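Reply to dn_fold:

You asked what the input looked like. This is it:
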Amino acid sequence: MPSAIIVFSHLRWDFVFHRPQHLLSRLAAHYPVVFIEEPVHHESKSFFTTWSPVPNVLVCQPHTPVNMPGFHDEQLPYLQKLLRQLVRDYHDHIAWFYTPMALPLLQEMQPGLVVYDCIDEPSALSNAPKQLVQRENALLKMADIVFASGQSLYRAKRDRHPNVHCLPCSVDAAHFVPALDRSNSHPAHKDIPGPRLGFYGVIDERFDADLIAKVADAHSSWQVVLVGPVAKIDPASLPQRANIHYLGQQPYHALPNFLAGWDVCLLPYALNESTHFSHPAKMLEYMAAELPIVSTPVPDVVEAYGDIVSIAPDAPSFIAACEAALLASPEEQDEKIGAMRRVLASTSWDATVEKMRALLESMPRRQSRPGKAVAPDEIMANVNRLRQHDAVRFATTAIIGAGPTGLSAAYHLGHDAVLLERNSMVGGWCRSIREKGFTFDHAGHVMFSDDPYVIELYDLLLGSNLHWQEREAWVYSKNVHTRYPFQGALHGLPPEVIKECIVGAIEARYGAQGRPGTLAGTAVGTVVGTTPARAQDCCGDSGIALPESKIAVLENRGPSNFEEFIYQTWGAGIAKHFAIPYNRKLWAVPLSEMDTSWLGGRVPLPNLDEIIDGALRPPARPMGPNARFGYPLRGGFQALMSAFVPHIKGTIELNAEMTWVSPEQHLIALADGRRFHYDNLISTMPLPDLIRMIGDEAPEEVRRAAAGLRHISVRCVNLGVAREKITDKHWIYYPEDTIFHRIFVQGNASPECNPPGGFGLTCEISYSPQWKPLPASGKELIDLCIQDCIKVGMLRPDDKIIVANEVDIPYGYVVCDHARLQNVDTIRSWLARYDIILAGRYSEWEYYNSDHAFIAGKKAAESIKWLTPKKSALAAE
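and this is what came back:
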């Protein structure tokens, strides 16, 4: 087995996709990679959470009870224990450092090599811990090899270590080819006219905010588009102009789409100590888009690309360079593009990794070199204590969670909201992922609504990126496909099944003797004292039978649970052949334990004419609330979520993982040490998690109510198949013997979800550790899905699978059991005393679609707007 690379990083894997991710995802083709992030706070214990973003890369996020940032000294005892356990699985390993702050952990390892990939100059970083320079000195003494990410860093390190190599940041030029199609602009540009001058990257102490303000002021018709997270600086310090657009952090796969919509690319770096050593990888990415570039005189940029990039030392020259770029002749543009192509031809991340690997393989391992053992005393010498981060910010309204509800709340609130999202991108469980040209949503999502405001909102957010389709939803049972809903499209099923379904529906409505009864609470008459003759037909698939004595009673009252609702509404035949087996498969709990309050208008209820007509001939059109649905043309469902960002006037904080909430103090603590005081709080996070983070501050009855809330999880297996147009359907329900309950045909949501020659499918599997454990995971689960796809005719045995991955949704659906309403009311009533508003599916613990989520966010924002003047009036009294 090759040496594993165990990496210590101050940058999280799911932050901006940069040098560590580019290098390590490629090195993973040759070595197992374990990527250890900075720890996050957990109340009582220490553990790793792990995930695999790409094959052979394992991201480990330590959780410890120490509420200190980074690789703080007080974290070390917990991290040492976790690392000790981890290293046991990787006897032959390389220690790889991006941050010298993690150096004390080296004493728990016996690495074959110690590597320092230097991407920053510690002495030039603002607000850096005192120990950082000291620990870099120690790391340079211990490292076997040092890589420098640019010429300036190389010159700074080459005299401090005998084995330093300059391997500058490079580019994946193929990834940016879509930017060459200028019609491929990101939907966030929809309401931003041209010309657009763009920048992407981290907006931090290197960013010259004053320069951007002057550029925006020089030409009000210019639109300055800034893409990236704000870090290490106060967002309030950034210039606000009508023609400056802050679009927040965006996924790496979306960057070509932003470049496609820009006219000039900017590098507005301030000239300070931190930028003196910068070697911005975005320069090469800008070149891959073949766009004009204007930069301040960052030393590495001037040295490497001064003949291609327009260099401007001050605001007037920077503005003039932008003007010249916009007015450049085709001949001038072609000359620059030719120079860019020559640069790109000589560099790539793949080539850089091959050079690194050759150097690593040529190095003799420490075990064969006397005197190279790790010296714990040297590592731990002269360690300065770090101060706790205690900065507290204020938010008039804090919103937890940037899913559809949180985004809607922030959109409708205006400037006073701070939106906190634990992930590196907005969207919640409506996010999308992209791999090898395939786009997959986190489970299948589509857009539909009977609310005119929501329809108008769809159009506002997506504009020309929105298209509508007639739904093709089907059910696969008895080895045939029938249209959804099952009860309205029986044609094609075996005759005996059709007969059972129709007779059962008639009996559910009129009783077994043809006398009027009650249907789903709609009175059409009563039956008194007569037991239906066909009580034995009221049997679920492999399940319960309603006793004969119960039948007459059911006809005189509404259903007391979901199972009774099924029998009363559709009858024993439809219950047996679809409704009971499918819902048991989906919900993973006894249906008798679920109430009916959640159903609303979601389940189409055709009358007997429709049932019989749907049995005699194929239905002419889809039925139900989503018979016609919308979906983004490009970008997956994520495009709808991301489209909110330009319209949100408040602050969006990504990678903001919440660890503690104090309703009494109106205080939120984040894992990175930041704290927020708030006047009002809108929570969209799962209700049990919110109460858990409140802890003992919540009364016992509230904690007990939270513990009583039940849910099921969903695991999605995404398959990218090397065959086009596998089916014309949008999704299919599977009530019978398959591991998945539904396949969402991602490839038909939009043709842009597929690469040429490919087609995407998502197999959805509900599970619950308590009631329905997941039968497998990883490759085993993927193989089971592929086998069942072949069994039901979705795939052929000879189909080639290009992409196969998993997405886990821990909170998939809330279970609407009989205690839910009381439990939620207990929690909501207590939280309302402390200005906490619950909004959305997981916080209100309701069965919500995305359109309901948008309305829930709007209503939460309106509640805040209504409460604020009331509270001000009370305060004045």
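Residues 399 and 682 are 5 Å apart (CA to CA).
Hope that clears it up.
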